[in-house]
Every structure is written in structure tokens, then in C-alpha cells.
Amino acid sequence: MTAYIPTVLTIAGTDPSGGAGISADLKTFSALGAFGTAVITAVVTQNTRGVAGIHQLDGETVAGQLNNLLDDVHVDAVKIGMLGTVEVIESVAAVLRERAPAPVVLDPVMVAKSGHRLLAPDAVAAMREQLIPLVDLITPNLPEAADLLGVGEATSVCDMARQANALADLASGVLLKGGHLSGADSTDLLVVDGRVTEFDAPRVVTRNTHGTGCTLSSAIAALRPQRDSWVVAVREAKEYLTGALRAADDLSIGSGHGPVHHFWRMWDDPHT
Ligand SMILES: Nc1ncnc2c1ncn2[C@@H]1O[C@H](COP(=O)(O)OP(=O)(O)OP(=O)(O)O)[C@@H](O)[C@H]1O
Ligand SMILES: Cc1ncc(CO)c(N)n1
């Protein structure tokens, strides 16, 4: 029997140090049995210590790459990461509106772990009003959720539940990530079709947390075409990420927040 290998597209920015953005996305797709394709939105000068500069592509160049790819290649799922500007958000929204390649997971990337802005402040409203209504699942972290809702950041899982439900009025599906809280578990909340599911994973003590958000959203996009529901795809994506965080200590990349390790499953799985 021939294996089913979904083709998954990432629309995101670059990271030369290999931990976040397009690099994290493509590695995740491969590790989870999907074929990865990529449209670049911005060339980011960054390493594990932080972001030193951004060369933003214009909307026409991003839409051109997208249309050219979709004219030729059928994609089974899309992950959207860093977009950068109102212009790029509007271009991607126009292509999604016209061509509707589903399912689409949007990681509403706003600020890098180092604190550097990756989304223009005036682009938050465009993301909320023009892009979010078109996608199937958004995966904000706590500061992103607060920005999208115009409220203060959640400081407890109870706050997270309130904000996840409020975000569900804006989006078809919401996975609110609690990586920025402290506590023994790292808790995320999924709201799909009015049902809330809590995912708890043991918090891994490591400095190698660069690109956790990119990895999680890419894992969900890679798994969704291979699984029957968002709940199952999210559960397995989170298990994948926890394994990749644990295995990150096998790596020694850079002197800042190092990347997670994507190929742990191949080494640990006796069937491979
Ligand atoms: N130390 C940790 N141990 C286990 N899971 C974690 C840890 N840190 C984050 N996570 C999980 O990683 C995922 C990403 O969460 P986080 O809130 O860090 O996203 P993010 O801020 O968007 O990441 P990024 O640094 O890529 O921008 C979530 O599933 C979260 O629960
Ligand atoms: C390109 C890119 N996307 C997302 C993030 C967030 O981790 C990053 N640092 N760089």
C-alpha cells in the first residue's frame, strides 16, 4: 500500500539559525510524514540571541509566490507564521479568499522571544479583521491573545479559558498557548465548535525554547490531514513538541535560546 504523504505549505519568515520560522516549519513537516513547501514573507537577520534586522518582502511578491505554487501544486494544509505588515496580510487574505486551500492554521506571530517586533503594530487590526475570519485555527501565545482582544495578558489558566472563549468569537478554532505562564505543566486550551479541550504537558526545563510556537503550529498543520479531528491533531502535535523540547539538550546550537530538536522521534521509535 502506498503511504499517504500530505503536502503542507508554510507561509512565514526565515531564521538562519534554523530554530524558528520556515526552517522549523519544514523540519517539523518532514519529521511528521508530510512534504513541505514554503512561501517566504520576510528575510530575518536573527540567531539564537535575537533579531538584528528584517528585510520585509512586499505583498505582490508574497502573493506571486503563493499563486505560482498553487497553480501547480495541490496543498493539503497551510500553516501561516510571520507576515510582518498590513500589505502582506492583505495579499495573503486575498489569495485565501479566492482559492480557499483548507485547512489553514494561523500562528499570529507578533514578537520574537528576544522581544523584537515581527509584526508592525498597525497590522494587528488587519490580522484580526481580514485574516482570522478566513482560517480554521489560530494559535496565539498569551501576549498575542491579549493584543488581539485589546485586554491585559492572562496570568492563570482561568484567565486563559475566558480569553480562549472570547477569541472563539473571532475565529473558527482557537488554540491558546500557555507557554508564557509558569508552573509544573505547560497548558494550552483548544476551542473548536464551542467545545473546550485542555492539553497539559510537563514543563521541560531547558534554555532551548526558540521556535516552540512555530513547531507546534506546523505540527498541527502536518498532522491535521492525517488525523480525523483537530483534538487528535493538537494532542499529537503537543506530544511531538514536548519530545523535541526534551531532545533539545542533545543539541548545542548558539549561545542564546537554542532550537528544539526535530528528529527525536526517528531515533526513539523502534519501528524506524
Ligand atoms: N518549557 C516548556 N515545556 C513544555 N512545553 C512548553 C514549554 N514552553 C512552551 N511550551 C509549549 O510550547 C508551545 C508554544 O508555546 P509558547 O507559548 O511558548 O509559544 P510562542 O511564544 O508562540 O513560541 P515562540 O517562541 O516560537 O514565539 C505550547 O504548546 C506551550 O505549551
Ligand atoms: C521568522 C520567525 N518567525 C517566528 C518567530 C517566533 O519565534 C521568529 N523568531 N522568527
Task: Give a quick summary of the entry.
With 272 residues, this protein is of the alpha/beta class. It has helices spanning 21-31, 59-72, 86-99, 124-131, 142-149, 157-167, 212-223, 230-246, 264-268; strands at 7-12, 35-40, 42-47, 50-56, 77-80, 104-106, 137-138, 173-177, 185-192, 195-202.
Explained architecture:
With 272 residues, this protein is α/β, with parallel strands linked by helices. The chain has one domain (7-250): 3-Layer(aba) Sandwich (UDP-N-acetylmuramoyl-L-alanine:D-glutamate ligase). The chain has 9 helices and 10 strands. The strands form 3 sheets. The chain has a 5-stranded parallel sheet with strand order 2-1-5-6-7, sandwiched between helices. Strands 8-9-10 form a 3-stranded antiparallel sheet, sandwiched between helices. The two termini are 18 Å apart. Bound molecules: adenosine-5'-triphosphate and 4-amino-5-hydroxymethyl-2-methylpyrimidine (HMH). Adenosine-5'-triphosphate binds next to β9, α7 and α8.
Largest sheet: 5 strands, parallel
The dominant shape is globular
Low-confidence spans: pLDDT under 50, at least 5 residues? Answer: none
Give the name of the CATH superfamily. Ribokinase
Strand content: 15-25%
* N-to-C series of helices and strands: EHEEEHEHEHEHHEEEHHH
Q: What's the alpha carbon Rg, rounded to whole Å?
A: 17 Å
State the share of residues found in helices, binned by percent.
25-40%
Count of individual beta strands? 10
- Total of DSSP H or I helical runs spanning 4+ residues: 9
* First-to-last CA distance: 18 Å
